[in-house]
Amino acid sequence: MGIIYLWELKVISDAVGCSGERLWVNLLDKALHTFTQVRLLLMATWADTLERRYACVSKEGVSLQNVDRIDALLRILKRSEDDEKGRTAFFIDSANVPLMWCSSPDRLARMLKKLAGRGAAVARIHEEGLSNDVWQLLSVVADVTLCLRVSSDRTAICKSTFYTKNGKRITKVESFKVDDQCRVSCSPYMEEKAVILPEKAKADSLEEMVLPFDIGLQLSESELEAKRNVKLPYMAAQTQEGITYKFVVLLLILHELHKSISFEQRKCISESCELLIG
């Protein structure tokens, strides 16, 4: 963020858990060294609240104005066009409010560009409730966009996009901190990429999962052969010997039954057994 200078239109998009207020004020403090006038157009924050929080907003050359209607914003635009006192930097907090006033997002984009045409405009906007179409429009008309978010490890991240003089698009992702005096420090940030296993590796891991007998074992060839020859009870039940054993048990049970049932019942059971065997 260190190479981003104050010119034309900048849009700061902040998110839940990653406020852009201090970064916005940091740019405001820088603007005092560049522009003859710095005007704060407040639509979501009261002027006295900012004055209590930040000393720089009370400095000479800074004017604060609460804007609560679209016509008030239009009058400011008209006066700025007629003003010949020099370059002015406008700081808007937040652009979500005039977005609700305007009949279309294009109108808001034109208004921001007109303000930036007087010197510079820095608009803060909140990600909550902001549609992707509106953000894409603002990204096109803005000279610089700063997208803030919080990473999974609670690090504040800024993705900045801007253009060089020859039109080359530059995108940077940095972690950043803003202290109580609104001084910014930042460093390059690398996203941790999830490890994606190839399909063969996934299949191999599944095969290992269905062989719990091998978990943690380093078996030799002879040990593996011995393991394969182990006859477990549930395996024996599926062999020919196991089936024959079941049949013998069944015959013994029938023999005991024959002692206590009638001739007709024995005849019926015998016919059933012949059907099973045949």
Automatic annotation (TrEMBL):
Concerning its family, UniProt says: Belongs to the ELP5 family.
Any idea which UniProt keywords this protein has? Cytoplasm, Nucleus, tRNA processing
A single GO BP term for this record reads:
tRNA wobble uridine modification
Species, as recorded = Parascaris univalens
Question: Any one cellular component term from GO for this entry?
Answer: cytosol
Q: What is this protein called?
A: Elongator complex protein 5
Does this entry carry the keyword tRNA processing?
yes
Q: Tell me the GO molecular function terms.
A: tRNA binding
What is its subcellular localisation?
Cytoplasm; Nucleus
Q: What superkingdom heads the lineage?
A: Eukaryota
Q: In which pathway does it act?
A: tRNA modification; 5-methoxycarbonylmethyl-2-thiouridine-tRNA biosynthesis
